[in-house]
Design brief:
The chain is α/β, with parallel strands linked by helices. Among the domains are: 43 residues, no CATH class; 67 residues, no CATH class; 73 residues, no CATH class; 74 residues. Helix content is 25%, strand content 31%. α8 runs antiparallel to α9. The longest helix is centred in the C-terminal third of the chain and has 37 residues.
Length: 572
């Protein structure tokens, strides 16, 4: 026998007697006739192979008496294959299998014996513990089918107690749903609360929106920079966050939902909540602004520079404070006060409160000052002025002035020169008119509004009287036709309407006459109204009540007042 390889010797170290037996088998010689020894083969459990006759042996070529040695096992794979072959031979011997005679009949297939195994299942649970899936494998051999008890037991072993699909379990057990994947338990997911929201009704950033003129052009003076709000106006709507709804996983453990986030509430100065806390509302009138993440209502709108094309016209529900000048052609409106630290040139200032001009106004024959309260300025030139209360300045030149209380001109000049003024109460100045005899008109005791109301009442009385006279003529003509019996149905309706209209016109006429009488009495009863001046120049026209006086000569330190239906002069 040849020398064994090193690898083979290593294997033989662990084979023991089996290895020696194998080696002995490899060294078993053939029979004298070159075949296997029949008795030896039968002893090993194999089937006897028929021996060949002498004639068959003589016909075969000479066969060497010594066979070549079997190949050595050189690799682990070879050794594994040999072991498997050996195991197969042992299994065949244990079953009493006999090797078939290939010459007599083909080998019959051996019947495979299948071991018995009950139906089994696999259960998988998601990482979030919210779902369990199951697959059932069919039984083998005489194994038992799946049952509901087995399914519930598997769930119980996994501690699954919530969301079990009992109908699905029943279906799997009754209909033998093998090799199918089912969701056998499902948890109840939690519902997170929704976050709150803020709905703005005003922009947070200033947006220029130029107005459009009637001819279709763009009005660059109206840029709508101010957002006027009234007390109680809704600034924004608040939607509160909702509470979450907790869920449950398949282990019966609660799953917490997340609380909705509350947005930042943009409540600033002069901003408050409504009664139910769902809205932010303005606490006062003013300009709504947004800065530092909050809404504010400013009672005063401040202009750091001039009112020009960079600012445009101003229309504000509060007060306006202007650091610079107001240029020609621009308009400033405010429900509160208007204060201008610079010059006003040919502009219009209209305030519900007071107007205060630190320097003055050059109206350029188009400037307008209109205040519900007082008007205070250093000077006023070539403008139209109306004050609901008092007017105070150093001088007024070539202007049309209406003052519903007192007009006072103080300072170095203190003069009212040219134009006209109407003062309801007292006019106290240093000088009226000028040495050039410029025409200057002064009316005391009646404001232009009072005179305008009296004129309007008289005009309406005339119109009603004319209408009544026209209706009287039509009524007389229709009545005459009615007496003759020739009145048509349409004319009859017209006659009835005229009679009704005549009654209404009589009532309206009486009301207007009463109003006109009261206004006339108010104009005549001037009370303490008077003009006091250090100098009154010729060309000055003074009207008090229903009397009129033209100053022909210069008067010094004089006072004019109304008494017994005429204008009288006294010492100041």
């Amino acid at each position: 026998m040849k020398e064994k390889s090193l690898l083979y010797n290593l294997f033989m170290k662990y084979l023991g007697e089996d290895g020696e037996e194998e080696e002995a088998k490899q060294e078993t010689p053939l029979s004298d006739h070159g075949g296997y020894d029949k008795q030896k083969h039968m002893h090993d459990g194999g089937e006897a192979i028929p021996q060949e006759t002498d004639e068959e042996l003589s016909e075969q070529p000479d066969i060497p008496q010594k066979t070549e040695p079997e190949p050595l096992i050189e690799t682990v794979e070879d050794w594994n294959e040999a072991e498997l072959q050996k195991q197969r031979e042992l299994d065949a011997r244990s079953r009493g299998a006999e090797e078939p005679d290939s010459e007599e009949m083909p080998a019959e297939p051996e019947e495979e014996i299948v071991p018995s195994r009950d139906a089994s299942l696999e259960l998988a649970i998601t990482d979030d513990k919210m779902k369990a899936t199951m697959m059932v494998w069919e039984p083998e051999g005489d194994g038992a089918d799946i049952t509901e008890e087995a399914l519930y037991k598997a769930l119980q072993e996994k501690h699954i107690t919530y969301g079990i699909d009992e109908e699905k379990i029943r279906d799997i057990a009754e209909n033998k749903r093998y090799r199918q994947l089912f969701v056998i338990a499902s948890g109840k997911p939690a519902k997170d609360g929704t976050s709150g929201k803020i709905k703005d009704f005003f922009p947070r950033q200033v947006q220029l929106k130029y107005a459009t003129k009637q001819n279709g052009g763009i009005d660059f003076k109206n840029m709508n920079l101010i957002h006027n709000v009234k007390e109680g106006d809704v600034v924004c709507q608040i939607t509160r966050p909702t509470d979450p709804e907790d869920g449950m996983n398949i282990y019966g453990q609660p799953v917490r939902g997340r609380q909705g986030a509350m947005p930042a509430i943009p409540q600033g100065k002069n901003i408050t909540y409504n009664e139910d806390g769902t809205q932010l509302v303005a606490a006062c009138e003013g300009n709504l602004t947004f800065r530092s993440g909050r809404f504010h209502v400013e009672k005063v709108f401040e202009v750091a520079g001039n009112v020009d094309n960079s600012i445009g016209n101003i229309n504000f529900s509060g007060s306006v404070f202007i650091q610079g000048d107001v240029f020609e052609g621009y308009e400033v409106r405010a429900k509160g006060n208007i204060t201008v630290m610079g010059m006003v040139e040919g502009a219009a200032l209209i305030a519900g409160g007071d107007i205060q001009l630190q320097k003055g106004m050059r109206g350029m024959h188009c400037g307008v000052l209109e205040a519900g309260g007082d008007i205070t300025a250093k000077f006023l030139e070539d403008c139209t002025i109306h004050a609901g209360s008092n007017i105070q300045a150093e001088y007024i030149i070539n202007s049309q002035v209406a003052c519903e209380n007192n007009l006072t001109l103080v300072g170095r000049r203190g003069a009212f020169i040219g134009g006209s003024c109407s003062v309801y109460n007292e006019m106290n100045v240093k000088a009226v008119g000028a040495a050039s005899h410029i025409t200057t008109s002064v009316t005391l005791g009646a404001t232009p509004q009072l005179i305008a109301e009296a004129e309007k009442a008289a005009r309406e009385i005339r119109e009603v009287s004319e209408q009544m006279e026209e209706n009287r003529k039509n009524t007389a003509w229709l009545t005459e036709k009615q007496n003759r019996g020739s009145l048509t149905p349409v004319q009859q309706q017209r006659l009835s309407a005229l009679n009704l209209e005549a009654s209404v016109n009589k009532l309206k006429q009486r009301q207007l006459q009463s109003k006109a009488a009261q206004l006339a009495k108010q104009i005549r009863e001037v009370g303490r109204t008077r003009l006091q001046a250090d100098e009154v120049y010729p060309g000055t026209i003074i009207c008090i009540g229903d009397s009129r006086l033209v100053v022909m000569d210069k008067e010094d330190s004089v006072s004019y007042y109304y008494l017994d239906g005429e204008i009288r002069k006294g010492m100041r």
